[in-house]
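Ticket #4471: complex job returned nothing on first submit. Input attached below:
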Amino acid sequence: MSIKINKIGVMTSGGDSPGMNAAIRAVVRTCAFHQINCVGIYRGYQGLIEGDFKQMNARSVNNIINKGGTILKSARSKEFRTKEGRITAYAKAKEEGLDALVVIGGDGSFTGAMVFSQQFDFPVMGIPGTIDNDIYGTSSTLGYDTALNTVVEAIDKIRDTASSHNRLFFVEVMGRDVGHIALNAGVGAGAEEILIPEEDLGKERLIESLKRSRLSGKSSSIVVVAEGDKTGENVFELKDYVEENLPEYEVRVSVLGHMQRGGSPSCWDRVLASRMGVKAVESLLEGKTNFMVGIKDTKMVLCPIEKAVKGETDINLELLRVSDIMTT
Ligand code: ATP
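Support reply: We reran it on our side without changes. The output follows.
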């Protein structure tokens, strides 16, 4: 069904990521450019259920392109997972006169959008906002590049201490079940080993590699560990294992945690957010619905939201090889 779109609601949902504000700005200004109304929905789906709306215009989004987090706030809504919750949300959307939704979030938020769209034949468009880069249909999600820069900067600083004290550091980075952050930031920061869920390096190989590293004259080392690494070990258990097997090493653990999700977005994320916002609104105006905006080979693309939710991202095998070569 294709309806004329006069009013678009925009929300951020799930975990926040740098670049969400830049995307909100882009959605609002593209609506202004095409002379249609735009409404900001606070606290994701929970705000939709409660009718927590604010009329937005081009000036509502001044000076936010450089800000981390999200001015619309984000939330996880249990109520929206229920049919009744979504009925209330739909009633509020209709009351406000919304014709379509732009949802900036991760795969959970897209599942919510899909279910809502199926239940009420309501146009939706997704913009992938998550630092993990774990969404099928785009080579880069909003916030991923910023998080990589944050992690590399943190590891550079940790290396100063590691080399001054001849220490081995395990640095745990975010990424849930995928190793994109660990692999890319690990190569970028010159880590000696990178442990990711997609490749089971095995604890024994890690010990062998660290021994080789020591024999080759390295007195300090950085091992980057993705939080969902397949060795199945908590990073502190890994530390204990290495200390037991390599008593000559003084081992420290640094869990970078939520600092990876904050901060001012990188130039790449700001530009990506701007392009995605324009593409999202203009695609809705062209009558497209149930898609997620992505980037592939530097071009903006649309991926059916169902595929974005179900598909898995691949780890870059070439980068894995580069990492292996760099750690010889
Ligand atoms: P992150 O990547 O940070 O986890 P996300 O978008 O995946 O972000 P979720 O908490 O999984 O975050 O989902 C955000 C919200 O989307 C949920 O709180 C819920 O309101 C809605 N949602 C998720 N899954 C469903 C579903 N199956 N049906 C209806 N709504 C859903």
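The CA atoms of residues 28 and 38 lie 6 Å apart. Closing as resolved unless it happens again.
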